[in-house]
Design brief:
- The chain has 279 residues and is mainly α.
- It has 2 domains: 87 residues, DNA polymerase, domain 1 (Orthogonal Bundle), CATH 1.10.150.130; 156 residues, Intergrase catalytic core (hpI Integrase, Chain A, Orthogonal Bundle).
- Helices cover 55% and strands 5% of the residues.
- It is built from 14 helices and 3 strands.
- The chain has a 3-stranded antiparallel β-sheet with strand order 1-2-3.
- A hairpin with a 4-residue loop joins strand 1 and strand 2.
- Helix 1 runs antiparallel to helix 2, helix 2 crosses helix 4 and helix 7 packs across helix 11.
- It is globular and about 70 Å long.
């Protein structure tokens, strides 16, 4: 069996496990590079050889930590596909990074949204922040998913293949008709150069990168930063964690609790609840 056939089997298995297309693609690039380097399929390579290869790639050839993680995760999935659990266990352990998210201030958000020249680009950035959407949720958003009357957005098949409703900013609702009239998308709210097809991830990241270049913001910002900022600003405005969890689509409240470490929360003076219960 060649790499192509073996990889197709791998894709089918990982897809059944409901991994995203982008994740499967990243795994594929790592596995292809490994197979090409050794001229063997991954399960035909010894664990010690693989560990030495991963060490060399990260320590001597300067590959990123992201590459290392993707390669290890991909190899673990591959070994388990071939019933080689012992090999999977012997792959390097990956420590979970405990980095706090980068967050923009409200003033920085306001500046950023003014930077794009095109209405479509300004609308995209404000929509990402205003509803706290992930990159793929934003690009796959259909016009029909936006309910102006209820001020809700229907996010379909978000992370974990779950649907949810999130808030639609009043500012977006008020300007939606003008946006649709001027930009004329057909199916998706944000379409690429091909009518009726969603905008690509690279195009969306390009939009925010160009806006950042024209701004005074010097933080390391990605599209996901807008989602972090959305959650942090809600927390600072007094919205409870459970409500923010539902908006973000987090399955575990502990994931949402990270924003407690970056939000600037104003302490409230301690008072006796008796004073608010009795006259």
């Amino acid at each position: 069996m060649g790499f192509s056939d073996a990889y197709q089997r791998f894709v089918e298995r990982v897809s059944i496990d409901q991994k995203s297309k982008s994740l499967v693609s990243n795994y594929g690039r790592s596995l292809a590079a490994i197979a090409l380097h050794f001229s063997r399929l991954p399960h035909e390579i010894g664990v010690d050889e693989l560990n030495a290869y991963l060490y060399r790639m990260t320590q001597q050839e300067g590959q990123s930590l992201s590459y290392f993680k993707q390669a290890v995760y991909a190899l673990r999935h591959w070994f388990r596909l071939y019933g080689m659990e012992e090999h999977a266990i012997r792959m390097p352990s990956i420590k979970k990074e405990e980095k706090l998210p980068v967050v923009l201030s409200k003033e920085e958000c306001k500046e950023l949204f003014k930077m794009p020249f095109q209405l479509k680009h300004r609308f995209l950035l404000t929509m990402a922040y205003g509803s706290g959407l992930r990159m793929n949720e934003l690009r796959m958003l259909r016009i029909s998913d936006v309910d102006v009357n209820r001020k809700m957005v229907h996010v379909r098949q978000g992370k974990g293949k779950k649907d949810r409703f999130v808030v639609l900013a009043g500012l977006i609702a008020d300007k939606l008709e003008a946006y649709l009239s001027q930009v004329k998308p057909q199916v998706y709210l944000f379409e690429g150069q091909t009518p009726g097809q969603p905008m690509g991830e690279r195009s969306i990241q390009y939009i925010i990168n160009e806006a950042l270049k024209r701004s005074t913001i010097r933080k390391e910002v990605s599209m996901h930063t807008l989602r972090h900022s959305f959650a942090t600003h809600l927390l600072e405005d007094g919205v409870d964690l459970h409500s923010i969890q539902r908006q973000l689509g987090h399955s575990d409240l502990r994931t949402t609790m990270v924003y407690l470490h970056v939000a600037q929360l104003r302490p409230h003076p301690v008072h006796s609840p008796l004073d608010r219960v009795c006259c």
